[in-house]
Design a protein that fits this description.
binds zinc ion, single chain
């Protein structure tokens, strides 16, 4: 008896490196803010929103939800 069975049904799930940027992971864009011409970046850790003009220079200036709300129509 020489019936060795080799299971060759291993499924490999290769994870492609799709250029993930961990530095962007903590940011989200608030579309309603962005639509008003603001940066709209949301710092997820704090829930604060950047209300500086779109494509502003320098780093974002995050403000609390109440301040961001005042900008919206
Ligand atoms: Zn910003």
């Amino acid at each position: 008896m020489n019936s060795h069975e080799h299971g060759t049904s291993e499924t490999f799930h290769t994870q492609p490196h799709s250029g993930e940027r961990p530095d962007l992971r903590s940011l989200h864009i608030r579309e309603d803010v962005a639509r008003t011409g603001r940066c709209g970046n949301v710092h997820l850790a704090t829930g604060r929103t950047c209300i500086l003009p779109e494509r502003h220079q320098g780093s974002c200036d995050f403000v609390g939800p109440d301040d961001a709300k005042g900008l919206l129509p």
